[in-house]
Amino acid sequence: MNLHYCIVSHTHWDREWYLPFEQFRIKLVDLIDNLLDVLRSEPRYRFHLDAQTIIVDDYLEIRPEKEKELSKHIRAGRLFVGPWYVQSDFSLTSAEATVRNLQIGSARARGLGACATVGYVPDQFGLMSQLPQVFARAGLQGCVFGRGHVLSGSGKSEFTWRSEDGSEVLCIFLAFWYNNAQRFPDSVEESLKLLEHIKKNSRARAATPHLLLMNGVDHLEAQENLFDVIDALKKRIGKDERIEQVALSEYLQRVRESLASPAVVRGEMRSGPESSVLPGTLSSRVSLKQRNARAQVLLERRLEPLAAVAARLGIHANLHGHIGYLWKLLIANHPHDSICGCSLDAVHRHMEDRFTRLEETGSFLLERLMESCILHLDRTALRDDDYVLVVFNTEPEPRSGCVEAVIEILLSDDRGAIRIIDSEGAEVAYDLLERREISRAVLSPVNLPGVVSAILYKVRLTAQGIPAMGYRAYTVVLHLGALTPATIAEEKGNSAVLDNGDVRVEVRRNGTISFHDHRNGSRFEGLLLLEEREDVGDSYVYRSNPGSSPITNERCVARVEVRHQNTGSACRIAYEMDVPAFYDCAGEKRSSETVRLPVEISLFLPRTGRRLDIDLAFPNTARDHRMRMLFPTGIDSDESWAAMPFDLFRRDRQDVERGDSVASRPNAGFVAVDCEANGLAVLNEGLYEYEHARAGSSIVLTLVRGNSFISRSGSHVPVQENWLVPENQCLGEYRCRIALLSYDGAKARTRAFKERDSFLNPLSALSRPADPRKFMQGRPFVQDASLDFIFFREKYASGVSLPSALGLCSLQGDSIALSSFRTRANSSSVVARLFNLESRAADGVISFSVPVQEAYELSLLDERIERCHLFQESSLRLSFLPKQIRTIEVVLGSAPRRD
């Protein structure tokens, strides 16, 4: 068998890690400057820029004059960029973020000249189960990766990775990492020794005679004398051997052509030791992960769907540019060393700034969209002193539920109380959470900024029947008299009971609860147990001392307050835990000094339903420790089910007990354990790390974890200065959003999964005066007090008159979930991305309130594949293979108009 050494020259570029971005960029400019010199001097040379395009943009911001030269090499196939925008982490970012990462990166690479077609993911800390399908539906020809897989026995590094829908990709596992030929020595004798070493290591694991030699590693520049070495080696290697520099795509093609009967691997790539999947990154710097979870919901579950609804209603708000900018800003926080929380303090401070900019921009755009819808409401039944409250639902199913709203009433209008009236004329009961006088800023495009005095009412009401992908309007009527009472009954003590007829919650003296489902008879005991213990690890891996015992709230005495209200029952639980202040590395023990850690838990049980919402707040005052919350299910099952990108993924606890996997597993807001009769799901916002513990068959969520190290080899070993990160202690205020959901076992699991989306994306509301001019007036001329002209655009809402309730799109099918709903850029079409949660075929129906004219199946890169024919007027029936992802473009008819 002829042996073929395939050299792939590359760099792995961490945009920010042990240096902040701007300092790494200086090194990046050096790298690409020198690379261009190599490409000019050696016409045979080719180089891979780590499958990312963001680093090209980073370079061109400093060297804009080099774009033409870079594009020339990209078009010529000498410089490879894309298909990614960044090398993100798949476990800590949403399914949609992964797709947009591919879309943005591929489009930018094509704009530069050409896009690479290899799914290159060398250093991600584990790969999601649906990645083969993502690659196949994006037209990528293979997967090259370095973590999360173990070669045992006669296992080979080349194999087929298959998703449950049947999609598959050729996989190359970098068993000897992406630097096995990091740099060839100048001496041909030494280079021959390197080749012999590679041959000895690789031949036992290679399924073909083509051996992959990765020439590069993190931040290394191109080897300028590589072809001098190759030319010398060609004269010295055996007659049955050849050596050449190749493109990664060429290597994959040669392997594919010579590979006979490859092994087939299924599921996620999270096997192997802690040093491979680095599970501690799931809980390092939890606050960043929580902000990321909220930012993803803001973009993909709120802003994009509402923009699509508004566009189809004839409210033409062109937000494609804004939304595209926000996606880039978000994905810039998704590189694996960034979102994983394993970088310098300065890096993570820059991430906080990006999140802040995204939140400021996204929330402002969302409010403007909501306000535009309110401005176009039919006002014929409203009086000038009325106010409007509109509740929005950007999920694909009609919803009823509690929603909090802020209603601002001009001080001159206020009569001391408000009533909320639905479209049928019935009064809606609400809970008044806050009432105070404020000075409200008034911003106008035709007047100077002004200020008005107003009364702020913060209320919570139960909104009924809010249409899918739509809204329902309520009238706020001002009246004299007493405010609607918020509290029907109040209780204080060390225990309490909340019962809505569907579930019963009993609060114990120590702050734990029992959760009883009246419908199926299930009972879960000892929930909300807090567990605190030392962390002697680092940002990559959590470690505790052997034999150490956790501190819990079992012996605490809680203060419990309950308020039974119009919308449900609210309970406040407060207690304090004393924990060691820090870990004594020199003495290898926890400190005798303690700090007090006050814990406050707020429960809310609505009037109906089987979901209990939990807000947990505490100031993290201790160092070198981890806090987790336990939810014993008592269900005799080794299986847990976790939300993952495009998947409801089954995990087996026995994999951990056999040593095939580590105990810490990722989830994307949903973890459940069930049997045929009943199940318990724990929903959460940004708490990505969980464990399915043997004791009590408990679901265990990590709330916070702190230490002072990016990486260290042991608790007593000194750490070099640039790996110290004091802010990794994560001191300060923490708030965690969690919910418990009881459901009727395996048959109801996918239905329970969809409650995650309602939890993460609750109903939202906005209020404005019936007369919009009240908050548009601004200030007159400031130069002369006698000039008091105020201007208004009378045609602020011309052309469209909207009804009091409307929904654009709904989805039927318990096992079919929505990933995104948006307008297509430069088109009047809407695009829905859907996926099947089940490991069996399933059907779904997506229906619109306007006729469907055409429908197309799209690739994940938004390319039309084929026309869909199974629709009737306003509905489209879709069939799904097991776990299949489908992207559908729908061309709709005219929007409803009431001119």
Helical residue percent band:
10-25%
CATH homologous group name of the largest domain: Glycoside hydrolase 38, N terminal domain
Overall tally of structural domains: 4
Secondary structural class: alpha+beta
Strand content: 25-35%
Please count the helical segments: 15
Q: Which value, in Å, is the CA radius of gyration? A: 29 Å
| Main beta-sheet annotation | 10 strands, antiparallel
Q: Can you name the CATH architecture of the largest domain?
A: Alpha-Beta Barrel
Strand order of the largest sheet: 17-24-25-28-29-38-35-34-31-32
Which of globular, elongated, flat, extended, rod-shaped describes the shape?
Answer: globular
Brief write-up:
This protein is α+β, with helices and mostly antiparallel strands and 899 residues long. The protein is built from 15 helices and 49 strands. Helix content is 22%, strand content 34%.
Description:
The protein is of the alpha+beta class. The protein folds into 4 domains: 3-277, 7-stranded beta/alpha barrel (Alpha-Beta Barrel); 286-375, Glycoside hydrolase family 38, central domain (Substrate Binding Domain Of Dnak, Chain:A, Domain 2, Up-down Bundle); 488-744, Golgi alpha-mannosidase II, domain 4 (Beta-galactosidase, Chain A, domain 5); 808-892, Immunoglobulin-like (Sandwich), CATH 2.60.40.2220. Helix 10 (286-312) packs antiparallel against helix 11, helix 10 packs parallel to helix 13 and helix 11 (320-331) packs antiparallel against helix 13. The model has no long low-confidence stretch (mean pLDDT 94).
Topology at a glance:
Blueprint: E1 3-9, H1 21-41, E2 47-48, H2 54-62, H3 67-75, E3 79-80, H4 95-112, E4 119-121, H5 131-137, E5 142-145, E6 158-162, E7 168-173, H6 188-202, E8 210-215, H7 226-234, E9 241-245, H8 248-258, E10 264-266, H9 274-277, H10 286-312, H11 320-331, H12 336-339, H13 345-375, E11 387-393, E12 399-410, E13 417-421, E14 430-442, E15 450-466, E16 470-479, E17 487-493, E18 496-499, E19 503-507, E20 513-517, E21 523-527, E22 529-534, E23 551-552, E24 559-565, E25 568-580, E26 583-584, E27 589-590, E28 594-606, E29 611-620, E30 625-632, E31 639-644, E32 647-652, H14 653-657, E33 665-666, E34 670-674, E35 679-684, E36 689-693, E37 698-706, E38 732-743, H15 749-760, E39 764-769, E40 805-807, E41 809-812, E42 816-823, E43 830-836, E44 842-848, E45 852-858, E46 864-867, E47 871-872, E48 875-880, E49 885-892
Parallel strand pairs: 1-8, 1-9, 2-3, 4-5, 5-7, 6-10
Antiparallel strand pairs: 6-7, 11-16, 11-39, 12-15, 13-16, 14-15, 16-40, 17-24, 18-19, 19-20, 20-21, 22-23, 22-30, 24-25, 25-28, 26-27, 28-29, 29-38, 30-37, 31-32, 31-34, 33-36, 34-35, 35-38, 36-37, 41-44, 42-43, 43-49, 44-48, 45-46, 45-49, 47-48
Helix pairs in contact: 1-2, 10-11, 10-13, 11-13
